[in-house]
Amino acid sequence: MLRKLTINEVITALKLEILSGREGINRKVTNPSLSKPGLELAGLFDFYENDRIQIIGSKEGTFFHWLSEKDQNIRVRMLFEKQPPAFIFSKNVTVPEIFLSLGNEYGIPVLKSQYSTSSLFSECFSFLQAKLAEKTTMHGVLMDINGVGVLITGASGLGKSEVALELIRRGYMLIADDVVEIYQIEKGILIGEAPELLKKNLEIRGIGIVNVVYLFGAKAYRESKRISLLVQLEKWDSFKKFDRLGLEEEKQLIFETEVTRVQIPITEARNTATLVEAAAIDFKSKVLGYHSAREFNDNLIRKIEENQKKENEEE
Fold first, then answer.
1. How does DSSP classify residue 46?
2. Domain CATH code at residue 251
3. What is the rounded average pLDDT of the residues 160-167?
4. Are residues 183 and 148 in the same domain?
5. Catalytic choice (27, 52, 75, 160)
6. Is 36 a catalytic residue?
7. pTM for this structure?
8. I want to staple 141 with a disulfide (CB 3.0 to 4.6 A). Which of 45, 130, 152, 192 is the partner?
9. Which tens digit of pLDDT belongs to each residue from 110-124?
């Protein structure tokens, strides 16, 4: 299903100033991409992406003033006739009068940002991607552990929220509990966050809903986090084979992104929070280039080869 938001939501999020076309602030935005209409100002409208918010930066503003007054009027009107969602001018660009008058005439918001062109483009694109990207939900707890976004999953009743509580007590951050909303910015980058109603809350059975910011302070919570590791908790099963060396690397596909997954068997005797913390730190060490399991395996192979060589020499 196509997700939508209004220009008014964009105005609020980016703290934009409304210069004209106020009656159009409830216009819908469905495309998370942005457009800079430089070619259109030059007269080429064959590729005009009129379903996108139009960003007018320093280059477009400067080129506009090189045009004759006749060309300015014709081309700007053509921009408005295609009914884009809105025009946003960056910080250092003076807004021409023709944009203000046509904004009111067509009911299309003409907005002013306090960001420079590159920052405006980046901030606006990030906001639109977060709001308009296709989302999926997973049952689990998302934590920021030493900079690693760890999504803890497993059957209901295994104690995922209790694990999160202990990790928060150790200084790590909660992103979402119970329901994690996930969207893909681009292939390879997944972002997780909590639904609006559940933000900052953690459900502990026997205690109830607790607000982690109220209990532990602002350092215990963050709004969203890139998901780098899936930790699946499972009840101990002596008949099931679990990876003991750590040489095998499992992946789980979410949208078009493969995420590393580890399975951790739990019992009453195992400290699950410590195991999840260790998994996150081990993952980070691998990203940084150190793979302890491979080092152990290499040392083991080297030792076997040395012993075989020694035995052959003795024979």
1. T
2. 3.40.50.300
3. 94
4. yes
5. 160
6. no
7. 0.73
8. 152
9. 999 999 999 999 999
The answer to whether residue 291 is catalytic is no
Instruction: Say whether both 280 and 139 belong to one domain.
Output: yes
Distance CA 121, CA 94 (A): 17
Say which amino acid occupies 105.
E
Beta-ladder partners of 77 = none
Give the up-direction half-sphere exposure of residue 28: CA atoms within 13 A in the CB hemisphere: 6
Instruction: Provide mean pLDDT across the span 209-232.
Output: 95
What is the tens place of the pLDDT at every residue in 54-94?
999 999 999 999 999 999 999 999 999 999 999 999 999 99
Question: Which amino acid, residue 224?
Answer: S
Q: Which of 144, 177, 178, 282 is catalytic?
A: 178
Task: Give the residue numbers spanning the domain of 45.
Answer: 5-131
Asked if 101 and 170 sit in the same domain, the reply is no
One of 70, 205, 241, 244 is an active-site residue; which one?
244
- Indicate if 65 belongs to the active site: no
- In this structure, the answer to whether residues 101 and 169 fall within a common structural domain is no
Could you tell me if 90 and 153 lie in one domain? Answer: no
Note the Cα 192 to chain centre separation in Å.
6
Domains in the chain, number:
2
139 is catalytic: yes
Of the residues 3, 4, 139, 309, only one is catalytic, namely: 139
Instruction: Please return the burial class of 202, using the count of CB atoms within 10 Å of its CB with bins 0-12, 13-18 and 19+.
Output: buried
